[in-house]
Amino acid sequence: MVNIIGSGLSGLSCALRLAGQGQSCRLISNQPSYRAQSVLAEGGINAVLDTMGEADTIEEHYTDTMRGGAFLADEEAVRGLVTQAPRIIEWLSSLGVPFQMENGRILLRNFGGQKKKRTAFVKSSTGKALTNALIDATRRYEQEERILRYQNHSFINLFLKDGVCKGAFIQNDYTGATELLYGPVVLAVGGLSGFFPKHVTGSAANTGDAAAAVFAQGVRFSNLEMLQYHPTTIPTPFKRILVSEAARGEGGRLFSINPVSGDKERCYFMEEKYPELKNLMPRDVVSREIYDRIMNRGEEVFLDMTEISEKVWNEKLSDLRDGILLYAGKDPMKEPVSVSPGIHYFMGGIDVDPGHRTNIPGLYAAGECAGIYHGANRLGGNSLLGAIYGGRRAAETILEEESAFSGNHNDIETFRPMNRAGSEEKESQAGDRMVAEIRTRQREESDSISGISQFDTTLCQILLSGLGIVRTEEGISAALDRLKELSLKALTEREKNRIHLAEAMLRSALWRKESRGAHYRADHPESREEFRRPSRALFQEGGVVIE
């Protein structure tokens, strides 16, 4: 039986593909699917449907994706992604996704980094609509017990034997009971939002603990330096609220003013500097321009959406307006909204091949936790596509590899955790410590208003100091020094794992002595051909190694 860790869009897509082919699987998550980060995606999903009569082509979608990712994405994988996109939209429509329609055709909107309209959408709640449709589709297979739901269960670590993934250790969040589930494992655990509390648009439930745990077990990661800052977010005390790129796709305009000089004249800086794509340049470009206006010029940046018609607001952006009214206290139909960049997506992640295999046999990864489709910068509308296509592709690979099931058991055993030290006594002790740490942290967070520990706050500050929108060797090195100081404190196993992954992120950024996509080095402002390749990070007994 296949074990899928995570029940967002990539996990659901993987489960549906497996169950549809007669392969039973477990869908394991600490929250129900309707609370997965996938539901937060607003703008839409890309596919060449050409319903707007712009003569769009799959080749153009491929070119835009590769160029947007600064030619760092896997070419074979991207080719498969864009080729299958129209079929995925057809499949989603058959499941009942209520895409915006007009005269019997799916409407498409403009999104950043793309000259053609190719983003299908459901108002500004596309992720929620897609997730709901896939949840409904899984119910049939749950009834037939081809999909077994393990809700409110947390991933502990992998069961590795002779270099092969044979299963996963999980914990029941209610009872504390632990189990070893045999079978191939698909990690669909989302991005690393939990490494940047209060500075991300993503869900705080995406702690990054699962990624840190498997990194410490020898799973290879790639392009960890590639963090996407979304240019238009609104800060709140708990997280950043996304102002979807759909607003700019429908006519929203960025401008800045200097509050000190008293000059209220608007500077539409994106339109002046980038006359072709204007406000719809790729996100890394827009974020750097806003950063420059705020940090270097002392200006305030606004998004003016007042020229968007009432009809468009009501039919396409009503959810977005409600969110801005709630969190910013302003009506975007009537006045501009102050915006600034926030961390939104993690292009890097677990290193996988086009079949979504990792460097460990029997282990696969899909969705935002896998770094393959987006290179150095993700195009808006490609994340939902990548999550669904990636989950389905991982399932297809597993179905093709019958050997992945050989030697695995389909029963459940009591918890006997793995540990690199080797002896059974140490293995048991390490497992007991990890479970105790998780339970202690859960109790601490339930007593805390923010749910953020001092360790996580400090780690976030260190990472932000080295992995901002603009980076330098001096800043990254200083962050590594601070990280080393933090590592000398008395730490839990969880905290040690997080430090290892944080170090890999910083060392990846230090290694890439160039500017490419979301990674901008002020001391190396140009792209260099010798760095037109992924960074790869591996944790070994000697520490973090960048390949």
Topology:
Elements: E1 2-5, H1 9-20, E2 25-29, E3 45-46, H2 58-68, H3 75-94, E4 101-102, E5 105-106, E6 108-109, E7 119-120, H4 126-143, E8 147-151, E9 153-161, E10 164-172, E11 178-182, E12 185-187, H5 209-216, E13 221-222, E14 227-235, E15 240-242, H6 245-249, E16 253-257, H7 269-273, H8 283-296, E17 300-304, H9 310-316, H10 318-328, E18 337-338, E19 340-346, E20 349-351, E21 363-365, E22 370-371, H11 382-400, E23 412-414, H12 424-446, H13 454-466, H14 473-487, H15 493-511, E24 536-540, E25 543-546
Parallel strand pairs: 1-2, 1-12, 2-8, 12-21, 20-22
Antiparallel strand pairs: 3-7, 4-5, 6-7, 9-10, 10-11, 11-23, 13-20, 13-24, 14-15, 14-19, 16-17, 17-18, 24-25
Helix pairs in contact: 1-4, 1-11, 2-3, 3-11, 5-15, 13-14, 13-15, 14-15
Keywords:
547 residues, alpha+beta, Flavocytochrome C3, Chain A, domain 1, five-stranded parallel sheet
Q: What's the β-strand tally?
A: 25
Structural class: alpha+beta
User: How would you characterize the largest beta sheet?
Assistant: 5 strands, parallel
Helix residue percentage: 25-40%
Strand order of the largest sheet: 8-2-1-12-21
Radius of gyration from the alpha-carbon trace, in angstroms: 23 Å
Mean pLDDT: 91
Task: Identify the CATH class of one domain.
Answer: Alpha Beta
Low-confidence stretches: 407-427, 445-449
Enumerate how many helices there are, as a single number: 15
